[in-house]
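In the laboratory, one determines a bound structure by crystallizing the protein with its ligand and collecting diffraction data. In a computational setting the workflow is compressed into a single prediction: the sequence and the ligand go in, and a structural description comes out. We illustrate the idea with 2-oxoglutaric acid.
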Amino acid sequence: MAHIAPLRAVTEAEIEAFWRDGVVCLRSIMPAAVLESMVQPVEDALVSSAMADLSEMGDALGSGGVELVTDGAVGASDVPRGHFKGGTDHWLQQSEFLDFALRSPLPAIVAALLRSSTVRLYEDSVLVKEPGTRERTAFHQDLAYFHLAGEQICTTWVPLDSVRADTGAVRFVAGSHLDRTTYRPNLFVTTMALPGTEGEEVPDYEQMKGEARIISFDTEPGDITVHHARTIHGANGNASATRRRRAISVRYTGDDARFLTRVGAPTKAHHATMHDGDALTVDAFPAAWP
Ligand SMILES: O=C(O)CCC(=O)C(=O)O
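The predicted complex, in structure-token form:
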């Protein structure tokens, strides 16, 4: 089956920006029909068992005394509370997500940005912040969750809605992909690290005003951001009373990626036969490019 072409080619300047800053925003690159084809699958994902209500998880953690990252207390604004919902590996249950990951313009875009002759799917993720979501997404590094080593690994973030700073735009620490520190993964609604994981805590960039260059993009459907797996990033809550923030993240590997167990990070049943150092040449990492 052929790929759907991007609306335009990735430019050399965009490739340079990706490797310099660890993130790039690609404007007007995804065809509207491809985005429209994912609207219903996202709704189906939202009511599937692959989805977690991260706001409820935050409530449970908060009542246990864990400090959360939020835009304010429940009831602090007039906007009724909305929920932050997230899920991973929808491609295993919903064929539309597999088609989107393998046949949309994303693999060609990723091959260009990673300067890679091959691209494989690592995982997908649906990340929805309904109007009135007060939970931020804590700063984190994707590689801390990925059982992978390598330089050619990235996340594409594909919004289905217009996104602004106050509706949940992702915030990226420019240049943080150059830091070789191994960071611990966190629980997304708190900076608390996942128990049993190894490495350093992610620095508290919320408090490091002026010391780090944090970049964020207002995006329209058709625009995407792509960040390196080592780029530290988080996201705002969604303060809007009416506007949803629906996004699909698809995470890909390139030529140099190898399997590497990240102790304590969530495991995947379809990785059961993998060993550290293995090339990702099995069906658990579906081939996306060429
Ligand atoms: O959408 C969000 O809130 C966070 C996105 C993110 O962390 C990712 O896609 O890697």
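The chain has one domain: 12-264. Keep in mind that any predicted model is a hypothesis to be tested, not a measurement.
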